[in-house]
Amino acid sequence: MNKLALRQEDIQALPPVYRQYYHEISSIIPDDRVIADPLRRIAYGTDGGFYRLVPKLVIKARTIKEITKLMEVAARLKVPVTFKAAGTSLSGQAISDSILIYLFGNWTNCSVQENGELIKLEPGVIGAEANRKLLKYKRKIGPDPASINHAMIGGIAANNASGMCCGTADNSYKTVVDMKIIFWDGTLLDTSDQESINEFKVKHANLVKEIEAIRDEILKDSALKEQIIHKFKIKNTTGYSINAFVDYFDAIEIIKHLMIGSEGTLGFIAEISYKTVKEYENRASALVIFPNTEQACRGVMKLDREFVSAAELMDRRSLRSVENIEGMPPYLKELDKDASALLIEVSGEDQKSLHSRIQDVKQALEGIPTVFPIAFTEIKQEYMKLWNIRKGLFPAVGAVRKIGTTVIIEDVAFPMEHMAEAILALQDLFDKHGYDEAIIFGHALDGNVHFVFTQDFSNDSEVERYDRFMQEVCDLVADRFGGSLKAEHGTGRNMAPFVEKEWGKKAYDMMVRLKKAFDPLSIINPGVIINDNPNAHLEDLKSLPPTHDIIDKCIECGFCEINCPSRNITTTPRHRIVIRRAISSLKAHAEDLPTVDKQLLERLQSDYTYMGNQTCAVDGMCSTTCPVAINTGEHTKVLRSYTVGRIGNKTSELTANHFAGITSMIGMGLAAVNGVHSIIGKKAMRSITSLTRTISGDRIPLWSPWMPKKATSLDSTLSKHSNKASNRKVVYFPSCISRTMGPAKSDIDQRSIPEVTLSILRKAGYEVIIPKNRNELCCGTPYESKGYFEEADRMSAELEKELLAVSNNGKIPILCDTSPCTYRMQRVMGDHLKLYEPVEFIHDYLLEHLDIEPVNETVAVHVTCSSIKMGLRDKFVAVTSACAKDTIFPEGIKCCGFSGDKGFTTPELNASALATLSDSLEGRCKSGYSNSRTCEIGLSHHSDISYQSILYLVDRCAKAK
């Protein structure tokens, strides 16, 4: 039953030209990659900026051939298209009210060449992933935007994103070597292939001729040439990279460099090659506090990239916004109201060069007053705390903003000699226009500063206030100080009306000409960079209506999406929040809605059941990368609690009251299924169960060859293990999962988890205490995930009471063999119990009491979501590294998507989350290990190797001392 099938009524509702577009591309793009339903069109039509457009169609494109076809048809029908990668862009570059072409799969090829000095990347590669590939060569890509863990190469190049360390010397413009470009008519140019260049020059002779004409005009105009050179001495992403006409003579080189920073308005970058830069391991940082901004800027002027990697300016308002956050230095609260700071980083190839550069900094800043002596730290944990101050600035504003307002981050650049005066003048503008919470910080070495403020767009007077403010900002930056209105975030929609103001008519006319030459039909991302509408920055503003306390702080940056197991099938956490806001907005005016909007509301609510609710794994991994720590999974649980109904509540109460009987019945069911499997075989079992599931409308759970057998009775297990008295004591609580689910038929070790756990504990010399009424106990996780909060809390309270009794009021450590259960227990039971899941208990308590002989094989390891949220990844690595010759932590695998029982009831979620697992293992493993039985079922199913608890691995290689 395909709940995502393209509905023809959605196609018929499109304007005629879009219907025709769909029919013409349908020969190459399958329907499952064409999105026409209103829910996902709204969801995908957002980026990190403060504008909202809803595309008519979203096309998930996977290959160059597909992009070529999409562009050919768009040109023939004169239909505008916009490209979107990660959508972390802050200026509205990645949204469209026409065709949105979304990079989906197959855009992640990454090839490291020339001993790490060159890297070839497709546009879907995340920046941090590229750097991970280069790590062993001690190299990195030049651009280092703050969003590098989430932003994709396509966006990094298209926006000429820079960052804290790259400056103007190592950005995409300076480090690009070659690229593959698809133009408005579908033509492909490979700048590394002379044959491709020759064909392009023939087919696009007019473009080449116009580029050469613009080049010659600029070179003959000494004043314009000098203006261009001067303006690109500092960071500048306002308009196009017309410095290419000065820096290069060859037309292909000019075209290649014009693509950098073109924001998807000149063509599609299908592949890019970068020269890489050195990555130094030796680093040190210092937070230098100055009496005021002027002194801090004087300090910046004394620093140089010859000996400084980064110098981040933070004004007093910035420091105040984070001073109460846990882990911040206490002295931040005591600073004077005018204080300002520079966070300075130096690096070197070795300790000698590092210390030399530290001295260079101290010497350069001599004579400039500081509040405290300059003190560098080389200890990673300490300097990371300092950088957390800088990283916390943007989310700090977002976290405290008034609900319904938008967080706006702008970035400008000033010539260094004007920086102090300009920043003070900018602060005066904040005060003048009532932006009291606005903060200023930025990459001071480049004269680049960001300012962050909150804005209400809900009424005309607030929009007018924003307009007055931005007009004066433009006057200040462009006219008074000759700076850049956009330094690194790209022109986008918000600065498009002001490009001519910064550059003047002559340079702007050149930009208009080159846009026309590249895009004669004006169909590639129209409205971005070149826009004749003087009010474009005030239109299509994003609404963020109050929706729910859990999600209202969301700024829609998309940093959550990297972890989401449903991101490739339905929606992401950002999408869910966007849709909930749309539903809230419609509901707020439900009585006055026209019929079409009432129908939209009904459709959104109906479709959200599957696309937003059923396919949410509620794993909470989204919160680990969210700047304001939003757990969208918690919101999904709340929504589920609203819809469980009277029957659901009665059912949950019944199961909780008869928990031992229910788990016993589940065990009997597993035994019966395994018995049938043994009799009729895997092939017949799969056919019968698949047919039954289809007939039932997917109501019957999916069967897998890795379905577990019934677990061995715990009483039977205990009878086999002697329990000697010992000074080392542990309370062992076997989770209901491990008490019920045994190994699968094909698992390597056929013992139950409690058997293995007891074996290890005895080898380590532990006396084991097990709650007597264990069969009635549960941590409440199964109930919580489905929205049965009352029963979840009741079950956990009963368990807590029992654990307190058997652990001597918390003095004895408690081991639970399942990570998600332990995570909930730690959250709801407080600090009076010493609660451990397997990895942490093994690491902290057992290894020192065991003789470990590593198994001579490569094993696969999956770190569960709960383990990551408990901060156990490093201990996972330590334990598995001690127990196996080699370990594989598959790249790209985040949450497995099994989510308790979703692997049975919504198996497509598990399948999508683990789609790359088998390829990642490359046939190198025969066994895998984790710490959640249900996760292990899904991992086994999609890798076809035996995944079991990490307890099995330790028991394999451990002997008693």
TrEMBL record:
Keywords: FAD, Flavoprotein, Iron, Iron-sulfur, Metal-binding, Oxidoreductase, Transit peptide. The keyword Plastid does not apply. Residues 51-279 form the FAD-binding PCMH-type domain. Its EC number is 1.1.2.4. The keyword Oxidoreductase applies. One of its GO terms (biological process) is lactate catabolic process. Pfam families: CCG (PF02754), FAD-oxidase_C (PF02913), FAD_binding_4 (PF01565), Fer4_8 (PF13183). Its cofactor is FAD. Residues 544-574 form the 4Fe-4S ferredoxin-type domain. GO terms for molecular function: D-lactate dehydrogenase (cytochrome) activity; D-lactate dehydrogenase (NAD+) activity; FAD binding; iron-sulfur cluster binding; metal ion binding. InterPro entries: 4Fe4S_Fe-S-bd (IPR017896), 4Fe4S_Fe_S_CS (IPR017900), Cys_rich_dom (IPR004017), FAD-bd_oxidored_4_C (IPR004113), FAD-bd_PCMH (IPR016166), FAD-bd_PCMH-like_sf (IPR036318), FAD-bd_PCMH_sub1 (IPR016167), FAD-bd_PCMH_sub2 (IPR016169). Belongs to the FAD-binding oxidoreductase/transferase type 4 family. This is D-lactate dehydrogenase (cytochrome). It comes from Desulfuribacillus stibiiarsenatis.
